[in-house]
């Protein structure tokens, strides 16, 4: 299967290539339909997570 056929097949299959990740706990918050793989960072609504405001950069 050629790459253009794979892209068309994935577009028709309803794959959600965008992922929203919590910047604190790294849990997946949601997914969304994008044209390519994309990561977005936000904050989740879990009170235990937001109480600890450490970020991914702080953990590295």
From TrEMBL:
Pfam (any one): SR1P
- Under what name is this protein listed? GapA-binding peptide SR1P
- Lineage of source species: Bacteria, Bacillati, Bacillota, Bacilli, Bacillales
């Amino acid at each position: 299967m050629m790459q253009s056929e794979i892209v068309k097949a994935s577009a028709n299959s309803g794959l959600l290539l965008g992922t929203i990740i919590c910047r604190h706990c790294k849990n997946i918050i949601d997914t969304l339909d994008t044209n390519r793989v994309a990561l977005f960072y936000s904050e989740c609504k879990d009170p235990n997570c937001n109480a600890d405001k450490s970020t991914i950069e702080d953990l590295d």
